[in-house]
């Protein structure tokens, strides 16, 4: 399901763009590639980062995102929710500059960015990525933000060169002069911009002077010098950055295990669903798949239920907890919709204790319906084991435009 646009024009005035800040792009030495094993897999969790105490970082909080478009502005709204009462605790806004790539349209450079998933303005312009189920969209939209939800990475089109794109970031609740462009060299091809966990750097894919696709990063402070982080598999796969020091993986459906030593991920022509983490940045590859575990029948990884189990949407449409060591089912299937209901269910988030998950129930291919905005999906909190009771979520802010990002 691809979220659409929603407008709240009274909240923003005309957005002005920040003047161009030129930067020198000189790649640094690439980090060496290293293999991983069950015993040597590095810890790439994010617990080493100290976070400020805010409604978005406190325990027992769900964070959602939605895109708002008015006649003269575009912005992303984040909401922190109490998952017991499902009442909003706080909202933050990220105003987008006029040259931010939030959709693709004829005559403009086609840009790969999770913002295009969140803010698709043209129903005839599909997601730049090959898959657009909620299990795919949610983790790549989450990667746009730092852990504290204070900064959001963006790709910016170059108004003077229709073939160029640059990266930058915006701050929450910022004025127009807080929009920061990190690069501006002629001919830049920077895409897939995401934030580091601490918000101190933007990571992205780019094309180097020899025409090779690479992963790079730029600091959000100082001169924004380009650091080369490793190889990339083109622009068609999104990035996720985790760990301290930060590392990037280029793959779909990336979810880091609670212990920080394994992750779920998928990529075309790569066997496996669960992988050990590794010390370098790069795309998911066949080399990394040598010790991978394939979760049998897993059509979409929703999240980790513990260090050793993953919740999946199965090819049959039900949900199933899988053993991350064997790839086999670790419990009984959980049916959210019936075969005669005429609806489908997609997973979004798993609770931090692994006992509940959130699903979106909607009509099949509803996003292709021009009246889709009038057929809001039904969101439910469902137990991860059979026998519990599902809870319906009802709030006007939880609709077809909503993407669930995290449950802390």
Strand content: 25-35%
Range of helix content:
under 10%
| Total DSSP helices | 2
Poorly predicted sequence stretches spanning 5 or more consecutive residues: 1-39
Helix and strand content put the structural class at mainly beta
Number of distinct beta strands: 24
Q: What is the average per-residue confidence, as pLDDT, rounded to a whole number?
A: 86
Multimerization status? single chain
Shape: globular
What are the defining features of this structure?
408 residues, mainly beta, 4-stranded antiparallel β-sheet, 2 helices
Protein model, in words:
The chain is mainly β. The strands form 7 sheets. Strands 3-2-1-24 form a 4-stranded antiparallel beta sheet. The longest helix has 9 residues.
Describe how the helices and strands are arranged.
Blueprint lengths: L61 E8 L4 E8 L6 E8 L18 H5 L15 H9 L8 E8 L2 E11 L8 E2 L8 E6 L5 E7 L5 E7 L6 E6 L7 E4 L4 E4 L1 E5 L5 E5 L7 E3 L5 E2 L14 E9 L2 E6 L4 E5 L20 E7 L5 E7 L15 E6 L7 E3 L9 E5 L1
Parallel strand pairs: 12-16
Antiparallel strand pairs: 1-2, 1-24, 2-3, 4-5, 5-6, 7-8, 8-9, 9-10, 11-12, 13-14, 14-15, 17-18, 18-19, 20-21, 21-22, 22-23
Please outline what is shown here:
With 408 residues, the chain is mainly β. The protein is built from 2 helices and 24 strands. A hairpin with a 5-residue loop joins strand 8 (201-207) and strand 9.
């Amino acid at each position: 399901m691809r979220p659409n646009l929603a407008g709240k024009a009274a909240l923003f005035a005309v957005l002005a763009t920040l003047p161009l800040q030129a930067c020198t792009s000189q790649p640094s030495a690439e980090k060496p590639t290293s293999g991983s094993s069950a015993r040597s897999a590095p810890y790439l969790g994010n617990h080493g980062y100290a976070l400020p105490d805010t409604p978005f970082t406190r325990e027992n909080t769900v964070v959602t995102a939605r895109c708002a478009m008015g006649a003269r502005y575009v912005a992303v709204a984040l909401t922190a929710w109490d998952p017991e009462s499902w009442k909003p605790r706080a909202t933050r806004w990220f105003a987008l500059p006029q040259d931010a790539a939030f959709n693709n349209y004829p005559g403009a450079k086609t840009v790969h960015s999770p913002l295009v998933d969140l803010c698709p303005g043209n129903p005839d312009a599909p997601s730049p990525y090959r898959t657009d189920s909620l299990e795919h969209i949610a983790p790549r939209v989450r990667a746009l933000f730092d852990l504290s939800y204070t900064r959001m990475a963006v790709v910016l089109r170059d108004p003077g060169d229709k073939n160029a794109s640059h990266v930058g970031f915006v701050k929450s609740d910022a004025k127009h002069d807080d929009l920061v462009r990190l690069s501006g060299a002629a001919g830049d091809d920077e895409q897939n911009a995401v934030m580091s966990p601490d918000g101190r750097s933007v990571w992205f894919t780019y094309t180097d002077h020899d025409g090779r696709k690479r992963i790079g990063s730029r600091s959000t402070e100082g001169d924004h010098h380009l650091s080369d982080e490793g190889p990339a598999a083109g622009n068609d796969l999104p990035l996720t950055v985790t760990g301290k020091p930060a590392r990037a993986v280029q793959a779909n459906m990336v979810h880091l295990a609670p212990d920080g030593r394994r992750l779920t991920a998928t990529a075309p022509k790569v066997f496996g669903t669960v992988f050990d983490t590794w010390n370098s940045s790069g795309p998911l590859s066949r080399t990394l798949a040598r010790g991978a575990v394939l979760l049998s029948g897993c059509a979409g990884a929703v999240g980790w239920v513990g260090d050793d189990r993953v919740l999946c949407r199965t090819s049959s449409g039900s949900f199933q907890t899988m053993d991350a060591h064997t790839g086999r089912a670790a419990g009984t299937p959980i049916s959210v919709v019936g075969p005669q209901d005429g609806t489908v269910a997609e997973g979004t988030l798993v609770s931090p204790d692994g006992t509940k998950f959130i699903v979106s129930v909607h009509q099949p291919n509803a996003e292709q319906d021009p009246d889709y905005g009038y057929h809001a999906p039904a969101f439910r909190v469902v137990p991860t084991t059979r026998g519990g009771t599902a809870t319906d979520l009802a709030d006007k802010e939880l609709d077809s435009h909503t993407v669930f990002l995290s449950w802390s």
